[in-house]
């Protein structure tokens, strides 16, 4: 079975709730995302528990610091056996290169992706922090830095995914949140796409949180998403 493109965002305050959900899921059906809240509460043991149990884990800690510190943090993430770790492209070329360098020689290097511009920003708030140009221009510039530094992709909105795919090719991943299966609540996401529409728009990996984690039946909710996007036997995505 090819790996499904869904990454379930484990946004739980209590690690026990995260573990209880994960026990009901199967590694072939999705990957897992551990973000700041769960990591701060559950610690590296939680992440290692998942990786040892065969899960591919995206450690979403968005490292942004001096190059030496980010390099060390990426190596520490790799030691946990994670599948993907991310940094902030705003850290700049030297930081991105140090992160790449830090994991490049490892036996099982994690994929390294970069956040470009957080979706909580708009053109006005970017100006406030001194970032020039529009959000779209900043995303393009930062994605370019990530690509030039040899990273494996970016976290981006589905709106940007198509252009990035065209520009850098399919191997440069577009990890995309803001996904809502038809009929599910938007929660606080402003612009949402269905899983199928996000893949058609150029996303390579779909981050889905509450529509699965807060569903009455999370297993059925994930199964419904996977059947909607129907990954075919040769790994090609049937859109
Ligand atoms: O519950 P929901 O599907 O909205 O969860 C989306 C996940 O993706 C959350 O973990 C959220 O922090 C993350 N995320 C996002 N928008 C971004 C970057 C990350 O929603 N721009």
Plain-language structure description:
The protein is α/β, with parallel strands linked by helices. It has one domain (6-229): TIM Barrel (Alpha-Beta Barrel). Helices cover 44% and strands 15% of the residues. The protein has an 8-stranded parallel β-barrel with strand order 1-2-3-4-5-6-7-8, surrounded by 5 helices. Strand 1 (6-9), helix 1 (15-24) and strand 2 form a beta-alpha-beta unit. Helix 3 (67-79) runs parallel beside helix 4 (93-104). The two termini are 18 Å apart. The structure holds cytidine-5'-monophosphate (C5P). Cytidine-5'-monophosphate binds at residues 9, 11, 35, 118-119, 155, 177-178, 187, 189, 207-210.
What structural keywords apply?
TIM Barrel; eight-stranded parallel β-barrel; 8 strands; 239 residues; 44% helix
Order of helical and strand elements:
EHEHEHEHEHHEHEHEHH
The unique ligands bound to this protein are: cytidine-5'-monophosphate
CATH class: Alpha Beta
Give the tally of structural domains.
1
Give the N-terminus to C-terminus distance in angstroms: 18 Å
Percent helix, as a range, is 40-55%
Main beta-sheet strand count, sense and barrel state? 8 strands, parallel, barrel
Low-confidence stretches: none
- The CATH topology is what? TIM Barrel
- Count of helical stretches: 10
Q: pLDDT average, as an integer?
A: 94
**Known CATH architecture:** Alpha-Beta Barrel
Topology:
Elements: E1 6-9, H1 15-24, E2 31-34, H2 36-52, E3 57-63, H3 67-79, E4 84-88, H4 93-104, E5 111-115, H5 123-128, H6 135-148, E6 153-155, H7 158-168, E7 173-176, H8 195-200, E8 205-208, H9 210-213, H10 218-229
Parallel strand pairs: 1-2, 1-8, 2-3, 3-4, 4-5, 5-6, 6-7, 7-8
